[in-house]
Amino acid sequence: MSVIATKLIDWHKQHGRHDLPWQASRDPYAVWLSEIMLQQTQVTTVIPYYVRFMREFPTIHDLGHASLDAVLALWSGLGYYSRARNLHLAARQIIQEYHGQFPEHRELIQQLPGVGRSTAAAIAVFAFGKYEAILDGNVKRIFARYFGISGYPGESKTLKLLWLKAEASLPVNHLDGKIETYTQALMDLGATVCTRHNPLCQVCPLQLHCKAWLDKCVQQLPAAKPRKPLPQKETIFLLLMQQQKLLLGKRPAKGIWGELWCPPEIGLNIDSENYCQQHLGFQIKTQVKLAPIDHQFTHFKLRIYPWLLHVLPESVAPLAQYIWIKPSDALKQGIPAPVRKLLERNFLTDHS
Ligand code: SF4
Asked: pTM for this one?
């Protein structure tokens, strides 16, 4: 068995995490849900969402037959909403193409929306005991350090090398639950010991053979992404209020925040009063500019200028894709993180 596998399996007995809610089950649906929620999100944040989600949608059929709105509402606050949309889409695909039976093989799991190779491998391991290597962000960091791989893991050459190392490090014997323990141990080591900042090398079971530790370059690995300044975009959100209620519209499925609820958005060069009159059919009574907020996407930064507008009482009827909603109730809907921030900052004390 590889040194890394032996050490990690031993270490996991005492130091690994054994009581996470999804570890009680080999149900592929539960495993899949936990793996998707854990992408870019910490365990402590995920647990209450996972528990609520499993209570509301205990099977793949419950999820597939639910409305996307209900799924997004339950996901609200967890971020990266494309994960929820893809879960919903994939549940429907599994019901249609596999008669509700979750596919067992990594190659098939990987074809589901929102599932990459590493996530597919983790599901195949934990749900079906398959012999597969994982390579999520934490595991890339461990291998880059342990093997002293200096390239940026996002580059294909480095990534290829990391996959080779991941495959070569698997325990030789994958029976007796070794592959599950090893995979969980890798995840746990990345989350609790070989962390991005201030890794706990003194207590790490891999220290003796870790190239980065031996060469004193732990902090330099893995190499950071070559920096390019992110483009900055700007937009205006119209916070239209009427009788203590806010106007929200459902965004189109394609594009940022697809199918989430947002205030109407206009470009900086658009006249807000004109826009409200012509596109929404509202007369504006008052208009106040609120403090802007910034949000960062992977590929750009967005500065949002929120304008608070009170509409005349008789302009009540919203268009089909819009709703009037109390700001406190809006927080229970599927809304993007900056809209949540805007509502909490501007409404939850005085206006809701
Ligand atoms: S010794 Fe340090 S850098 Fe190396 S694997 Fe362990 S925690 Fe990570």
From this structure: 0.77
